[in-house]
Specification:
Blueprint lengths: L15 H14 L5 E2 L11 H10 L13 H15 L8 E4 L1 H13 L5 E6 L3 H9 L3 E6 L20 E5 L11 H14 L2 E5 L22 E5 L12 E4 L5 H11 L5 H10 L3 H25 L12 E5 L7 H12 L1 E2 L1 E2 L11 E5 L4 H17 L1
Parallel strand pairs: 1-10, 3-4, 3-5, 5-6, 6-7
Antiparallel strand pairs: 2-8, 7-8, 9-12, 11-12
Helix pairs in contact: 2-8, 3-8, 4-7, 9-11
Length: 382
């Protein structure tokens, strides 16, 4: 039987962390208790106020909303920029999306022609590359350096001919952040060359010292993408947002109408209420801060002592080149031997990721403590 037809655009790499998650699920189905340090899945659920708001709304029809999202939610997100950054933002520029994933699809489709080249720092979120490829765009990896805390700097981009640049702060998988000056240097580099600047700010709100800087504090030309998944603990609700330049609103609206119709109405109702659940969300952040403390203390004791210092998000990225040259196999060994699921670095860095691992500390503190004990015991036996 001949192979069925398929496009080259569809030949994207797997999102390996999801493969690891499935292997961990299979182990749990077989009766093992697995500690999850692989996926950026908050151990907390949606805020109580968000769930209550949706419960109250369930006796009314939940249907299509306008393509760009509920006007009240767009206004609430604009108010968040005033509260967090002191930025006055026209709610008309806010586009509510089905998670940040659809925001990237909308942004890349609106900004780039097929064949355009888009730069992204490595290590970085793997789905950038795969979404770009699926849209017939060319991802251009930019290896970042330890001395720059694994964030790109303009010197790394010297000589590149690209139409776009994606930057994330706090970064995934590293959790490192760009200062105002460092982010401004990258925005300035892009603006001077007519390069579209996409700022992934999905981990904003999750910081443990100075807060993260939004690209909108620097310029109004960047496309800014965020989500209710991380700080607001609403991963499965699939609701995010994007801030676009004023002259791009109608273009994005036409795309959103046709590609997605609208974000889920129920999720938008919950998201609007979540914006006011400040005390609960800050308590979650305090939990992550304690988990981070445990990780920075426990990972070196277990033998993972070459780590990027995480400023935000809920990840620790470790150089394990003294332990392995095959992070995928090593992650499998840790899952089998310790019952701890971790993510191999090849998900984030095609060139150097075989020598790195990402550890997530998004789950409950008791799970993090147990996971660290298991890792220490496993490494002592290894």
């Amino acid at each position: 039987m001949s192979a069925s037809r398929g496009s080259r655009r569809g030949d994207v790499d797997p999102f390996i962390v999801m493969d690891v998650m499935e292997r961990a699920r299979a182990a749990e189905a077989a009766g093992r208790r697995i500690i999850h340090m692989e996926v950026g899945q908050p151990g907390t659920g949606a805020p109580a106020g968000a769930r209550a708001a949706l419960a109250r709304a369930l006796d009314q029809p939940l249907g299509y909303t306008v393509a760009l999202g509920l006007p009240e939610l767009r206004a609430g997100i604009a108010a968040l920029y005033r509260r967090w950054y002191g930025v006055e933002l026209d709610p008309a520029r806010v586009v509510v999306t089905t998670g940040s994933s659809s925001a990237f699809i909308l942004a890349f489709t609106a900004l780039f022609e097929a064949g355009d080249r888009v730069a992204l720092g490595e290590p970085g979120y793997p789905s950038y590359r795969q979404i770009l490829r699926a849209l017939s765009l060319v991802p251009v990896g930019v290896p970042s350096r330890d001395e720059n805390r694994l964030q790109p700097v303009p010197e790394d981009l010297a000589g590149l001919e690209v139409e776009g640049l994606i930057v994330a702060s706090p970064g995934n998988p590293t959790g490192t952040m760009l200062t105002h000056d460092a982010l401004a240097a990258l925005v300035g580099w892009a603006e001077a060359r007519g390069v579209a600047f996409v700022s992934d700010e999905i981990y904003h709100g999750l910081h443990y010292g100075d807060r993260a800087v939004s690209a909108l504090e620097i310029s109004q030309t960047p496309w800014v993408i965020n989500s209710f998944s991380k700080y607001f603990s609403m991963t499965g609700w699939r609701v995010g947002w994007m801030v676009v330049p004023e002259d791009q609103i109608r273009r994005v609206e036409r795309l959103a109408q046709n590609l997605f119709i609208c974000p889920p109405h129920a999720s938008q109702i919950a998201a609007l209420a979540a914006l006011d659940c400040i005390d609960e969300l800050e308590a979650n952040r305090a939990t992550y801060a304690e988990n981070r403390r445990l990780m920075l203390e426990g990972l070196p004791k277990a033998g993972f002592d070459r780590i990027a210092p995480p400023d935000g998000a809920f990840y620790v990225y470790a150089d394990v080149s003294d332990l392995t040259t095959d992070s995928l196999a090593f992650a499998g060994e840790i899952l089998d031997g310790a019952g701890v699921a971790v993510t191999p670095g090849i998900d984030f860095d095609p060139l150097r990721g075989a020598r790195t691992l990402r550890f997530s500390y998004a789950r409950a503190t008791a799970d993090i403590a147990e996971g660290l004990e298991r890792l220490a015991a496993f490494m002592a036996r290894r």
